[in-house]
Amino acid sequence: MKNLWNDRDAAKYQGDLGLRVYTSRLLGRDPSLVLHGGGNTSVKITETNLVGEAEDILYVKGSGWDLATIEAPGFAPVRMPHLLKLAKLPALSDPQMVNELKTQMTQASAPGPSVETILHAILPYKYVDHTHADAVVTITNTPNGLDRIKEIYGDRLVIIPYVMPGFDLARVCAERFAAEATDKTVGMVLMNHGIFSFGATAKESYDLMIELVGAAEAYLQKQDAWILPLASVQTSKTSIAHALAHLRYQVSQVAGVPMIVSCDRHEKSLAFAQRDDVATISQQGPATPDHVIRTKRIPQIGRDVAAYKKAYETYFQTEVQQIAADKTMVDPAPRVILDPELGLCSVGRTAKAAAIVADIYDHTMDIIARSTALGGYQALPAKDIFEVEYWDLEQAKLKKGGTPAEFTGEIAMVTGAASGIGKACVESLLARGAAVVGLDLNPDIETLYDRPDFCGITCDLTDETAIATALEQTMQTFGGLDMLILNAGIFPASAPIASLPTSQWRQVMNINLDSNLVLMRDCQPFLKLAPNGGRVVVIGSKNVPAPGKGAAAYSASKAALNQLARIAALEWGGDRIRINSLHPNAVFDTGIWTEEVLTNRAKAYGLTVEEYKTNNVLKVEISSRDVAELAAEMCGSLFAKTTAAQVPIDGGNERVI
Ligand code: ZN
């Protein structure tokens, strides 16, 4: 456990709250301490309010903020005296507690205070740090975890048995802490949950956290339960693309909405999924309540989603309904799937959610493997886990989610995505909630966006093997394919037929036509498995209905592609795949419109470049974004009952009209 404190960096942060921001970020930088919004920190500050009174304020991490990136406005200021009175109440429902916390804030625009706010308030120290450190939960989640924790920390920590987060936990901690804390106390362990450290300064509290978690790591090392030998794994070299697409189809059916399935086949994940005891150790439950909501109760083993659903429904009826009849079932789809061949598949409504599941389970595998080496992994009993899974506050959060974007959970592939219309299509699809795979010959595509819902792949579309590789990567990244935007194409320099080189003709046909045939053909088995039906949008050209002189190869290639799309519409309608084309004209903010091409085309029509740009009935200029928005709409509900349509986007062209 590395202490990341640096005096020079710390000096850049002003005041008590500033240093609270600094050390919170230090904690957030270590994923073995906190992951994706997990953990929380606070500082108690006396401030003078508007009417001149001194007030004790608890600045505690607000919900929606991540410790790694938190800023001062991410801390919610709550009045201390009221929190201390609340802690003495015999009972308080969680929704009531949330209301009390919100209404005692001194800043209306601040985020909602953490559900662990009262717990921070009752600890009589200026700075309080709380993490769900892997090493600590590894030890608490074993059959004799309590003895081990006592052995490591002696009387330095107050130990709290597991209580679900929320008001009851705060109350239990207040009682225990008052009864058991001594002048030797520097922290508190919550069994099956995490650890607290305290201090008079931000540095003291942070240093203690690192030292305490470091002691847990050292203990695991001493017990030979830290660095574990990796079992040799079997990796099949055959394609798993279709297996993944089928799996995602089933998961989406069970969830009732399209889902993203991300496949991780790193050695560690495969080794874990291939363990002889995986069916036992992976079925105990998550490591800490913080992980329950996002990874669900237990992972699915193998590919039988229907069996998982049945088991989940039984669990809901026997465990959940018996205790709380008012609960409605969360969708019974798994969030983690372990398969000896596919490795670790993480499931989410969005690519981001799936990535969070993957990160959490990556740590869970370490925790389980180490606990097992220590004598056995033991998560909470099912009853405690479902109480978190069906927690009022979490259910409220789910309901509050609002209407998701139209393409949430769906995956789109765009060719020629590094620039022009392709890049604009990527943006229009991302804006509608889709996860997008961008293909381009230009390797810049790989770094076009740094976000979990975008995957850029360098791909030569004239190479069938490269297309197969790109599809394999698409399935491993997102699990399926719902939409295909055929945009890549070239527009060669103007050449009359009389002097058209055969090589140019063949090159244009190869890229504009042949590669699209291969793509459509190879994508069809995946599009067939799209939960909402597959969609293909062909970026055609005005040249299809109204060809132009000097553009024989281009016009012929686009016309042939148009015919190909019409036949695909006939052949694939039964598979719920619809194919529509749009015919843009004069879109000049694209890669193919070099200054030279533009000048030549304008000349061919006897116009200036400016006249050529708005040479249409409506006298408007057409942008890449205009085309992209229409392409995205063609994948949406407006066109749900339309296939083989050809829609011009050209400002109105007399030859087309
Ligand atoms: Zn916690």
Description:
With 657 residues, this protein is of the alpha/beta class. It folds into four domains: 216 residues, L-fuculose-1-phosphate Aldolase; 159 residues, 3-Layer(aba) Sandwich (L-fuculose-1-phosphate Aldolase); 203 residues, 3-Layer(aba) Sandwich (Rossmann fold); 32 residues. Helix content is 44%, strand content 14%. It is built from 24 helices and 18 strands. A seven-stranded mixed β-sheet has the order 3-2-1-4-7-6-5, sandwiched between helices. A seven-stranded parallel β-sheet has the order 14-13-12-15-16-17-18, with helices on both faces. Strands 8-11-10-9 form a four-stranded mixed β-sheet. It is elongated. The N and C termini lie far apart (71 Å). The mean pLDDT is 94.
Spell out the key features of this protein.
657 residues; alpha/beta; L-fuculose-1-phosphate Aldolase; 7-stranded mixed β-sheet; 7-stranded parallel β-sheet; 44% helix; binds zinc ion
- CATH-assigned fold name of the largest domain: L-fuculose-1-phosphate Aldolase
Average pLDDT rating? 94
Helicity range of the residues? 40-55%
Distance between the termini: 71 Å
Low-confidence stretches: none
User: CATH superfamily of the largest domain, please?
Assistant: Class II aldolase/adducin N-terminal domain
Named at the architecture level, the CATH assignment of the largest domain is 3-Layer(aba) Sandwich
Task: Give the overall silhouette.
Answer: elongated
List the strand order in the largest sheet: 3-2-1-4-7-6-5
> Strand percentage, roughly?
5-15%
Q: What is the total number of structural domains?
A: 4
Structural class: alpha/beta
Bound molecules: zinc ion
Radius of gyration: 29 Å
How many β-strand runs?
18
Number of helices: 24
Class of the largest domain in CATH? Alpha Beta
The biggest beta sheet is recorded as:
7 strands, mixed
